[in-house]
Amino acid sequence: xxxxxxxxxxxxxxxxxxxxxxxxxxxxxxxxxxxxxxxxxxxxxxxxxxxxxxxxxxxxxxxxxxxxxxxxxxxxxxxxxxxxxxxxxxxxxxxxxxxxxxxxxxxxxxxxxxxxxxxxxxxxx
Length: 125
What we know:
Helix content is 46%, strand content 13%. By secondary structure, the chain is α+β, with helices and mostly antiparallel strands. InterPro entries: DCC1-like.
């Protein structure tokens, strides 16, 4: 049996934390959610810079970021969420999902639950 997947998110961001709590309550998160501030990023094959830039999903020695991390989260939850996650992996929808993820990420400080601490540094946009 493989280890449980790990979801790495920005624990200082109210919006990100709210999204993780939503995934736990409503989607059925089947991963260990760890704030980037306490995660062993090196063990996951990630850098702090990448973890500050996007949510990460680590599973079976592979690392997914951004929209593809969200897709993996949805797939792991099973029906009905898994279908949406699978669609997000298709070539055209993968691009659309990536664009949508970047739009949300760049504006997470303005979204419900967001605070000034949620802002992504300009260098990452």
